[in-house]
Amino acid sequence: MRLLPGYPPSRLEVSGSVDVSLSGDLAELVREIDVRGGPVDVDASTVTFMDSAVLALLAHLAYRHQVRLFSPPEAVCFLLETTRLVELLEVVHSPAASA
């Protein structure tokens, strides 16, 4: 996970297996985004696993900022739909849209 310099929008890249073991690091990035304000673009195109701790942090962001989630894999889309988090953020499936 990393927060890219420059904003708005804030650009957060999330990749690999993202679970509760990384929630402290992700929470720190979320705090920085809260300070920055503005919209948030999340690149989830290379996420292989995501658990409920990460979904909770995405919900936190979505309640405070406009969030666009780019190219989430099918498993992440399933989680977003099951938890209805998809109603709080915009899912963008086109990689060209994130450029």
Give keywords:
99 residues, 3 helices, Transcription Regulator spoIIAA
* Secondary structure: helix percent: 25-40%
Question: What would the CATH topology be?
Answer: Transcription Regulator spoIIAA
In total, the number of strands is 5
Distance between the termini: 18 Å
User: Secondary-structure element order, as H and E?
Assistant: EEHEHEHE
Number of helices: 3
Low-confidence stretches at least 5 residues in length (pLDDT < 50)? none
Largest sheet: 5 strands, mixed
Strand content: 25-35%
Tally of separate domains = 1
Q: Which value, in Å, is the CA radius of gyration? A: 12 Å
What's the topology here?
Elements lengths: L1 E3 L5 E9 L4 H14 L3 E11 L1 H13 L2 E4 L3 H9 L7 E3 L7
Parallel strand pairs: 2-3, 3-4, 4-5
Antiparallel strand pairs: 1-2
Helix pairs in contact: 1-2
Overview of this protein structure:
With 99 residues, this protein is an alpha/beta fold. The protein has one domain (2-98): Transcription Regulator spoIIAA (2-Layer Sandwich). Helix content is 36%, strand content 30%. A five-stranded mixed sheet has the order 1-2-3-4-5. Helix 3 links the parallel strand 4 (67-70) and strand 5. Helix 1 packs parallel to helix 2 (52-64). The longest helix is centred in the N-terminal third of the chain and has 14 residues, at 23-36. The radius of gyration is 12 Å and the shape is globular. It starts with a strand and ends in a 7-residue tail after the last strand. The model has no long low-confidence stretch (mean pLDDT 87).
